[in-house]
Specification:
Elements (H helix, E strand, L loop, with lengths): L6 E2 L1 H12 L10 E6 L9 E7 L4 H15 L3 E2 L1
Parallel strand pairs: 1-4
Antiparallel strand pairs: 2-3
Helix pairs in contact: 1-2
Amino acid sequence: MVEKMPEKTQAFLEAECLAIAKPQLGCGDLEAVRIRRLHPTGSGPNWEVAEFNPPLQRVAEMNALKAIAPLTGTYALI
């Protein structure tokens, strides 16, 4: 039997993403991370990062997304 991921609110996940992304190189001025719901077929992650506020330079965005990636497989969006 596959164990179900813990479910969290959008506000919780966005705050966690911000806390993880902000220390990354080039992300020090980051104020918010917005996520969006996905509708996967099967048991894949049901959310992803939609935007960074303010927008990040491409290298900083890639650093932030790489740091946030483990969260998508850790928590499900309610």
